[in-house]
């Protein structure tokens, strides 16, 4: 791989075998991700964008599906390395956040225990060091009164606060790549803007590369430098965000752009939701 490329996906095809007739959901997917770059992956439901991301994160089952191609990270092909090698990369080097935090957070565990868990599993830090690291990341994701938040349960927090907790958990091991799969869809417009600002801040402060998945091109245009447009499992158009928005080539991309609501998001520092 080129020196500044930290992830390279080549000719990724994903085919499900859990039906009588195999079904291909991703065709010939290619991606090069540079250090500190934010790339948007857009398309409607069923376009293949989330499946591509799950494959990159190593979260697709190796049973009931066939994956062809290569996903190179740190000289290793994530599609063929052992389970143990893959686990050492997941969470440490490549982390993922999802659309609805309540499905990812454990309802019977306090917030502190959930954010601290990766440190307990993957590091030799003592109890006091883990506490300080959790406190630091909760402050970084702009949570007010983090000492109090640590003691709470997920159901006691707002949707925006839960998403901040998920981002904190994903970022606590300082991964090189963060995959954000529709992280703002379940939130109202004001909170969406705050989460996008937060991702931008973390990208700038930590130089974390981000793959931002969305069906909302307005958010992608605000956050990303480059965009890949997917339809029916294929990348139909890709390039710098400015070029795609000013001169889209494909009818599908033109329709997505025409459907964008006129909402401006200021990427300056904003206050969190209550």
Give structural attributes.
25% strand; 274 residues; four-stranded antiparallel sheet; single chain
Helix count, DSSP H or I runs of 4 or more residues = 11
Q: Please state roughly what percent of the residues sit in beta strands, choosing from under 5%, 5-15%, 15-25%, 25-35%, 35-45% or over 45%.
A: 15-25%
**Distance N terminus to C terminus?**
44 Å
Helix content: 25-40%
Model description:
There is one protein chain. The protein has 274 residues and is of the alpha/beta class. Helix content is 37%, strand content 25%. It has eleven helices and ten strands. Strand 4 (65-73) and strand 5 (76-77) form a beta hairpin. Helix 4 (111-122) packs parallel to helix 7 and helix 7 (159-171) runs parallel beside helix 8 (189-206). The chain is globular, with a radius of gyration of 19 Å. The N and C termini lie far apart (44 Å).
Strands, helices and their partners?
Elements: E1 5-16, E2 23-34, E3 38-42, H1 49-56, E4 65-73, E5 76-77, H2 83-89, E6 94-97, H3 101-104, H4 111-122, H5 127-140, H6 146-150, H7 159-171, E7 177-181, H8 189-206, E8 209-214, H9 217-223, E9 226-231, E10 234-240, H10 241-246, H11 251-258
Helix pairs in contact: 4-5, 4-7, 5-7, 7-8
Summarize this structure briefly.
The protein has helices at 49-56, 83-89, 101-104, 111-122, 127-140, 146-150, 159-171, 189-206, 217-223, 241-246, 251-258, and strands at 5-16, 23-34, 38-42, 65-73, 76-77, 94-97, 177-181, 209-214, 226-231, 234-240. It is of the alpha/beta class and 274 residues long.
């Amino acid at each position: 791989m080129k020196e500044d490329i930290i992830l390279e996906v080549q000719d990724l095809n994903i085919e499900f075998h859990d039906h009588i007739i195999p079904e291909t959901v991703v065709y010939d997917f290619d991606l090069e991700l540079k250090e500190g770059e934010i790339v948007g992956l857009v398309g409607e439901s069923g376009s293949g964008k989330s499946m591509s991301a799950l494959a990159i994160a190593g979260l697709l089952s190796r049973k009931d599906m066939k994956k062809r191609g290569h996903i190179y990270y740190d000289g290793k092909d994530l599609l063929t390395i052992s389970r143990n090698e893959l686990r050492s990369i997941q969470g440490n080097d490549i982390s993922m956040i999802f659309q609805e935090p309540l499905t990812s957070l454990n309802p019977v565990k306090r917030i502190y225990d959930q954010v601290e868990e990766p440190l307990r599993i993957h590091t030799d830090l003592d109890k006091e060091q883990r506490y300080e690291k959790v406190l630091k990341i909760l402050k970084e994701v702009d949570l007010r009164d983090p000492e109090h938040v640590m003691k709470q349960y997920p159901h006691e927090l707002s949707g925006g606060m839960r998403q901040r907790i998920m981002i904190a958990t994903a970022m606590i091991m300082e991964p090189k790549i963060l995959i954000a799969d529709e992280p703002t869809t379940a939130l109202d417009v004001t909170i969406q803007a705050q989460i996008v600002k937060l991702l931008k801040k973390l990208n700038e402060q930590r130089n974390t590369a981000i793959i931002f998945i969305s069906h909302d091109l307005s958010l992608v245009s605000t956050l990303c430098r480059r965009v890949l447009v997917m339809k029916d499992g294929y990348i139909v158009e890709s390039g710098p965000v400015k070029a795609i928005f000013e001169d889209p080539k494909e009818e599908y991309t033109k329709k997505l752009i025409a459907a964008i609501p006129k909402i401006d998001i200021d990427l300056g520092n904003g206050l969190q939701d209550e």
